Amino acid sequence: MLRWITSHSEYAEFFQPDFQLRTAYFYVPVLYTEDETAVGITISRKIGKAVKRNLLKRRIKSWLRSNRDNLPLGYRFNLVAKKGASDLEWQQLSSELSKITVQLQSRVRYGNG
Asked: How sure is the predictor about 1, in pLDDT bands with cuts at 50, 70 and 90?
């Protein structure tokens, strides 16, 4: 089951992550949890105006909903967008998010972290 992180106290926990993932357009702090997957999305004003930020957030949520079965259980993570993320086409965004999913799955499979 996929849960969205919405409270400030949950976002504050990401200041000391268990491990971090990085791609060209995202920084992802990750915390271990018990049998749930929770996702937060952080998009700062550096990314662009509200229209661009909201579009990026909607695209990320859409991708996560359609690929929730590929996300491993036991992690809470926050997708922090870097500059240029709002300019990605759908295929490029999907590729970036897939990289993050593969990196998370490899942590589960091989017990790294």
From this structure: confident
